[in-house]
Specification:
Strand content of chain B: under 5%
Radius of gyration of chain B: 24 Å
Shape of chain B: flat
Strand order of the largest sheet of chain B: 1-2
Number of helices of chain B: 12
Oligomer: heterodimer
Number of helices of chain A: 8
Order of helices and strands of chain A: EEEHEEEHHHEHEHEEHHEEEEEEEEEEE
CATH architecture of the largest domain in chain A: 3-Layer(aba) Sandwich
Order of helices and strands of chain B: HHHEEHHHHHHHHEEH
CATH architecture of the largest domain in chain B: Orthogonal Bundle
Helix content of chain B: over 70%
Largest interface: A-B, 28 and 20 residues
CATH class of the largest domain in chain A: Alpha Beta
Strand content of chain A: 25-35%
Number of domains of chain A: 2
Strand order of the largest sheet of chain A: 6-7-8-3-9-10
Distance between the termini of chain B: 31 Å
CATH superfamily of the largest domain in chain A: P-loop containing nucleotide triphosphate hydrolases
Number of strands of chain B: 4
CATH superfamily of the largest domain in chain B: MetI-like
Chain lengths: 372, 285
């Protein structure tokens, strides 16, 4: 009913192309996360959908209707802004009520609508306050309430958790998926936080420089990133990237790490003999006793306990630094010599020159607009 | 509180008093002169103690100026009314035209918008006397000379650029997202202008209006050339006090007191908005 489709959108500011022939489809009821560094064009894309700026080329469909030339007020969209964009001269109640007033709802319907959404977002007690008297968290909830109150079939959320503190962000990350699912609305959610993207998205579109680099489920993006850049953006601590040159022996394809042959599972035939980069997630590495096949000797440099996990910085004999992550309470080494093994199945191999991931099953890499 | 010694406080008080006396002296002196006759004013040395008289005010309000040479009609009350009418109407017209224009310049960057905005500002650069001669000729051809409409039109040269440029800054200070949020909520651009932009730029509009009013009120040269006696504001009307039998200092003073009263009252009333409005960033939530 309220699916969203963007066809070949181009947006330029002066000579700079902000969105470059971008196509994207969001199914009815789906939550799509737009993820990418600042300047990737996420916010511009959202504003195009909202109708406050116009594309230079391309079409925007909401449901079955061509909305490209329709003014913002007729698109029936709810939007929350990164900086909240509350109306400073109105109380929280009036702020939330504005979309209902636009629909010429009766006073009692407005009151009921505002109060129910305020209760849902736990801001019922501050409805009489002006924005300047609200805490950041309350402002953010008020902005969200204003976006939700009219039950719009399409919701655009522009990094709504950006300007709230870590505790609240964590709370909202847990609360939001249920809230959005209950509404049944189609959601486009912009964020720069990969955890938020993973927690909220049915699918994630990774953007950079006005182009969607990869589109897939959170699982796909994490397990099979299209290129080094995406692999680096998802995951904390960040993925270990080491220059390697894969070779082949009787047991299959392997890479040499500190003179230890690590065999890779996967179709990497094309990679043999090429300059490659291997990506090893810190949690795909584990400490082992000396003498186990494939054990790589390292020196422990530093250890950082992070409550639920412990991150250890180790150095290989060739001087390369690697991060190893393990759940708290599991055995490891905090100093001196140690040995680690690589889970060959979860290793990722990238082409050194292009940065693209090499080979293997279920490639979800997407170039411009080839949305599945 | 920082600790201050008694001496420091006395010195500070003395310094403040001196400053106040220095700046207030002309106004106080004029106020005192307005209650004196020409004879007591021109006494040498000047004296602080005198017998107050309301004759100056009576003369102004009744319109009969009695001098040694005889009785002169003086249109001061008429002039005062002209000043009020011309300034108020000019500012109202300027606000009506300037505020929407300022919004357009602030929000919609169209081709040549900067040039048009700058051209409007450049009206303020032109020396008034240079503009006046051709303007007078045109106005006489068009039948606008010595009409209220003509004067209000010319006063737009004073008020409009001022309002346009001040208010534009206030509109630009409103984050665009706030207006977007209102429109996405389902409101037209006009509703957004009325319900969001106007209230948020309110202090700025009030400040600009007040400044424009003061500038219009104080204008002298346009009205001097373009208006005859019955359309002249107080600034021009005051010339009538320079009579063949001497300068009527007492009446001039009374006229000054009466003519600064409206602007002073307005400024005092709007002071809050002025300070709030002139310190930019007042609209940030």
């Amino acid at each position: 009913m309220a699916s969203l489709e963007l066809r070949n959108i181009v947006k330029r500011y002066k000579s700079q192309t902000v969105l470059d022939n971008l196509s994207l489809t969001v199914a009815d009821g789906e939550t799509l996360v737009l993820f990418g560094p600042s300047g990737a064009g996420k916010t511009v894309l959202l504003r195009l959908v909202a109708g406050v700026i116009d594309p230079d080329e391309g079409k925007i469909f909401i449901g079955d209707d061509d909305m490209t030339d329709v003014d913002a007020e007729f698109r029936g969209i709810g939007m929350a802004f990164q900086n909240f964009a509350l109306f400073p001269h109105m109380t929280a109640f009036d702020n939330i009520a504005t979309p209902l007033q636009a629909k010429r709802s009766s006073q009692s319907a407005i009151k009921a609508g505002v109060e129910s959404v305020a209760k849902l977002l736990k801001i019922a007690h501050v409805l009489s306050h002006k924005p300047r008297a609200l805490s950041n968290g309350q402002k953010q909830r008020t902005a969200l309430a204003r976006a939700l109150v009219g039950s719009p079939p399409l919701l655009l959320l522009d990094d709504p958790l950006r300007n709230v503190d870590a505790k609240l962000r964590f709370e909202m990350r847990l609360e939001l998926p249920r809230l959005l699912a209950d509404r049944g609305a189609t959601v486009v959610y912009v964020t720069q936080d990969y955890k938020e993207a993973m927690a909220l998205g049915d699918r994630i579109a990774v953007m950079s420089q006005g182009v969607i680099r990869q589109l897939g489920t959170p699982e796909q993006i994490y397990r099979e990133p299209a290129n080094i850049e995406i692999a680096r953006l998802f995951g904390d601590p960040t993925i270990n990237l080491l220059d390697v040159k894969p070779a082949r022996d009787a047991r299959g394809i392997y890479v040499g790490l500190s003179n230890v042959q690590v065999h890779l599972a996967g179709a990497y035939d094309t990679a043999v003999g090429r300059d490659c980069v291997i990506g090893l997630r810190p949690e795909a590495l584990s400490f082992v006793e000396e003498g186990i096949p494939g054990a790589i000797p390292v020196t422990v440099e530093a250890e950082t306990p992070l409550n639920e996990k412990i991150v250890t910085l180790v150095r290989t004999v060739r001087g390369r630094e690697i991060l190893v992550s393990r759940p708290a309470g599991t055995p490891g080494r905090s100093e001196g010599k140690a040995h680690i093994v690589v889970d060959g199945k979860s290793a990722l191999l990238f082409d050194h020159a292009s940065g693209d991931r090499i080979g293997s099953k279920n490639v979800v890499a997407l170039r411009n607009g080839e949305a599945a | 509180m920082e600790h201050t010694s008694l001496l420091e406080r006395i010195l500070r008080g003395a310094a403040l008093t001196l400053v106040v006396i220095f700046f207030m002296f002309p106004i106080v002196w004029i106020f005192m002169m307005s209650f004196q006759t020409n004879e007591t004013i021109l006494r040498i040395p000047p004296q602080l103690i005198f017998e107050p008289t309301l004759a100056n005010y009576t003369a102004l309000i009744t319109g009969k100026l009695i001098t040694a040479a005889g009785t002169l009609d003086i249109a001061f009350m008429r002039n005062l009314w002209n000043s009020v009418f011309l300034s108020t109407t000019s500012v109202a017209v300027s606000l009506l035209l300037g505020v929407p224009a300022a919004y357009a310049f602030a929000r919609h960057k169209f081709r040549g918008s900067e040039d048009i905005a700058f051209t409007l500002l450049s009206f303020k650069f032109a020396p008034a006397l240079l503009v006046l001669l051709p303007l007078t000729l045109y106005f006489q051809k068009l039948g606008l000379a010595n009409t209220y409409i003509g004067l209000i039109w010319v006063y737009q040269l004073i008020c409009l650029p001022l309002i346009l440029w001040i208010v534009r800054g206030y509109f630009e200070d409103i984050p665009a997202d706030i207006e977007y949020a209102y429109r996405i909520g389902g409101h037209s651009w006009f509703a957004t202008f009325r319900k969001i932009a106007l209230p948020l730029a309110g202090p700025g509009i009030a400040a600009a209006g007040l400044l424009a009013f003061i500038f219009a009120w104080n204008n002298f040269v346009f009205a001097l050339v373009l208006a005859s006696a019955d359309k002249q504001p107080v600034t021009v009307g005051a010339l009538a006090f320079i009579t063949s039998s001497g300068i009527q200092y007492g009446q001039i003073s009374a006229a000054i007191v009466l003519s600064i009263t409206p602007t002073l009252a307005l400024a005092l009333y709007a002071q809050r908005y002025l300070v709030e409005g002139l310190s930019l960033g007042a609209v940030k939530g």
